[in-house]
């Protein structure tokens, strides 16, 4: 038997109801905040990701699904959505009509990481991006929206961690300080961090290896070296979040795994996920649009890990599964064909009905109705046919009534509350 690929998974009925709930809640919330959906391809030219995410990142170095297509062009299954959204913003000159675009994407991403609980090779993200706005109000709106989404989905202990990564004016100074600090401790760092400490020293700060964590205790804090505009911007974020009653922690070690971030950066962590404790992450990436060949437009955004959100949501799939409104138990060929017509007509009217397409006994059909948790049952056997009326039973109250065959669909449409 052919099994699915390691790190990939099916989301089955019984589980998918929770995914639908999350997706619908996110869509409604985002659209209320003025975001529009954009659908971007699953696959792009490799160069788009390697240039934007950064050659020295784990994603580009070891996690992308990259292969030559049949003509030999290098293509990559998207490991994240931001690069494609920015490509699309530039390619379609969305900025010409209005530089401010609020966009969202929901869909699968691919990273060849070591699979474990909460970490998959095909996983799903919900992304929202605000392009064309330099004001920190955009970052605050994103954090606010995340916090509200998590509360609508009954996530407990979701806490925003925030940091500032500075800008091209103040970051080089910090990088130099950090590199000097790390070079004194190179013998204590893991081999990845030894490489990072030269090429991308900020990434050492969020290495999960305990020895590295120990080695960087007391490292310089980026927040001490921010230039005035970056400091002012970060202060606004903090003050506004406080005014909006959003609890947060400042985490000067929060650097995130992608190169394009600057200024405010954030993650939503929950204590409930063990090692994979980040449910969402994002921040400002003001240089990316220009770096990918577009105009000098600022941008900020986030990505939520859908799989992890499903795990920490207080909703359980079993609470969301809707049982049928009606089970039609038909006996005999003639009754079955009448029932089949009702079943189709009712489905069109939004009455969720079920019936047996085969020749099962009344007893086994009633058992099935019970198992499905059908709220009502309609019985049509030889006797009912002769009488010209079907038997309608409310399974909760056990009340019964008869409905003339020609009136079944209309009557049930009125009788079943929706
Ligand atoms: P990133 O794009 O790396 O900033 O990730 C944003 C969010 O996506 C993270 O906070 C995770 O919740 C989720 N995520 C990232 N990688 C994976 C993965 N391999 N499996 C499941 N979720 C992931």
Summarize the topology.
Blueprint: H1 16-32, E1 36-37, E2 43-45, H2 46-53, H3 58-63, E3 65-68, E4 74-77, H4 82-91, H5 94-97, E5 101-110, E6 122-131, H6 136-152, E7 158-164, H7 171-183, H8 191-199, H9 210-215, H10 228-243, E8 249-250, E9 262-270, E10 278-284, H11 288-291, E11 299-305, H12 306-312, H13 317-320, E12 326-330, H14 333-349, E13 353-355, H15 362-372, E14 376-380, H16 382-387, E15 389-394, E16 400-404, H17 408-415
Parallel strand pairs: 1-5, 7-8, 12-13, 12-14
Antiparallel strand pairs: 2-4, 3-4, 5-6, 6-11, 7-9, 9-10, 10-11, 14-15, 15-16
Please give a structural write-up.
It is a single chain. The chain is of the alpha+beta class. It is 39% helix and 21% strand. It has helices spanning 16-32, 46-53, 58-63, 82-91, 94-97, 136-152, 171-183, 191-199, 210-215, 228-243, 288-291, 306-312, 317-320, 333-349, 362-372, 382-387, 408-415; strands spanning 36-37, 43-45, 65-68, 74-77, 101-110, 122-131, 158-164, 249-250, 262-270, 278-284, 299-305, 326-330, 353-355, 376-380, 389-394, 400-404. The protein is elongated. Bound molecules: adenosine monophosphate. Residues 80, 111, 113, 118-120, 123, 125, 256-257, 278-281, 303, 305, 307-308 line the site of adenosine monophosphate.
